[in-house]
Design brief:
Blueprint (H helix, E strand, L loop, with lengths): L5 E8 L19 E5 L2 E7 L8 H17 L2 E3 L4 E3 L2 H22 L2 E10 L4 H7 L1 H12 L3 H30 L5 E4 L8 E8 L3 H14 L4 E9 L13 E2 L3
Antiparallel strand pairs: 1-3, 1-4, 1-5, 2-3, 5-10, 6-8, 6-9, 7-8
Helix pairs in contact: 3-4, 4-5
Length: 249
């Protein structure tokens, strides 16, 4: 198989171990190695030609990042980061060495937990009972059924559900933020009123999730919470070099 550049998985402290029982992306799995400069090193492999976001390669990338983060701080790359050659990687390590060391120290023994909040969809009865406007619109729709009445009621319900979820999301954010080292907002997700990632100490991640899950249970008629983590700390680093490219994704 002819290589198509250098695939970069993460940046770690120079001398940190790299798993010997795992491979990288590609079929067969590409052997892992490091490219070192000063106090930092990049975990890399040869990039397979025509790399795509196949399930096998996505899992190989994610599993390696999880293993690296268990062994020590790692600055994760998004799937598909490919540099043209080793010289480019060394240049990026040299240019960013000081910043990488600061980031690695910040992430030491940390993991990411992502929290998304959506409006609860199974609490319409309690919602209508608590909202006089909705109660009036429901009664009007029953007395004079029709498209316009149903449309007004449906729109009002959607707005009310989102408002209750957003309020719960703000309360949850206030509760979780003091328990995290750092907080980062995520991209907009359709139907989602809150998308936040939290940098949490590895030993604190179970307690952190427990607090979020208890909040979800207590406020289940207002908000539907979806938790993911522990994850590699994607949201708390920005290490992609200007000379790297995202391959085929």
């Amino acid at each position: 198989m002819t290589a198509d550049g250098v695939y970069v998985y993460a940046i770690i402290r120079a001398g940190s171990p790299v798993p010997t029982d795992m491979g990288g992306v590609g079929r067969p799995a590409a052997p892992l190695r490091t490219i070192r400069h000063g106090r930092v090193a990049a975990v890399v492999s040869e990039a397979p030609p025509k790399l795509r976001a196949r399930r096998r390669d996505l899992l190989a990338h994610q599993n390696l990042l999880m293993r690296l983060s268990e062994q020590g701080p790692a600055l994760p790359m998004r799937f598909g980061m490919v540099a043209p050659d080793e010289k480019t990687v060394r240049g990026q390590l040299a240019a960013g060495e000081a910043a990488h060391m600061v980031a690695l120290e910040h992430l030491s023994d940390g993991v990411e937990v992502n929290v998304k909040a959506f409006p609860a969809q199974n609490a319409l009865r309690s919602l209508v009972a608590d909202d006089r406007k909705l109660l009036r619109l429901r009664d009007e729709a029953r007395r004079r059924p029709g498209y316009e009445a149903n449309l007004r009621l449906g729109e009002a319900v959607a707005v009310a559900l989102e408002g209750r979820a957003a309020d719960a999301g703000r309360r949850l954010l206030n509760e979780l933020t003091p328990r995290a080292r750092a907080v980062a907002s995520g991209p907009r997700v359709q139907g989602c009123v809150l998308n936040m990632s939290f940098l949490v100490g590895r030993g604190d991640s179970d307690d952190f999730r427990s607090v979020a899950e208890q909040f979800a249970e207590t406020h289940r008629e207002r908000v539907d919470l979806r938790l993911a983590g522990p994850l590699p700390c994607y949201s708390f680093v920005s290490t992609e070099g200007a000379h790297a490219r995202t391959a085929g994704v």
